[in-house]
Design goal:
Layout: H1 5-19, E1 23-29, E2 35-41, H2 43-47, H3 52-60, E3 66-69, E4 73-78, H4 84-99
Antiparallel strand pairs: 1-2, 2-4, 3-4
Helix pairs in contact: 3-4
Length: about 100
């Protein structure tokens, strides 16, 4: 909770760089229920047809929001923090399916 969007984006970039071939999705929320989601995808993930901007925008809809960005790094927001766990689970499931990991 209460991690600013820029800090979340920075953490996702650093984690992605450390992991190498990876797809990182992080989420946070504020006391007033606003959600921030960030996705950082490696070049290898982009090569498989996944773009962070399109991906995180669709995931944010679960939380009543939207967003986007570049193929490798993107940010989105939402209005319903109670849906954040569901959104993160959906992100994990969709990534595993798209990347062939069960």
């Amino acid at each position: 909770p209460d991690i600013e969007a820029e800090a979340l984006k920075s953490a996702a970039e650093k984690l992605s760089a450390k992991l190498g071939n990876s797809a990182v999705v992080l989420g946070s929320f504020t006391e007033d229920g606003k959600v921030t989601l960030v996705a950082s995808f490696s070049k290898e993930v982009n090569a498989k047809g996944l773009q962070a901007g399109k991906f995180i925008g669709a995931i944010a809809k679960i939380c009543g929001g939207g967003g986007g960005g570049r193929p490798n790094l993107a940010q989105a927001g939402g209005k319903d923090a109670s849906k954040l766990p569901e959104a993160l689970e959906a992100a994990e499931s969709q990534l595993k399916q798209a990347l062939g990991n069960s």
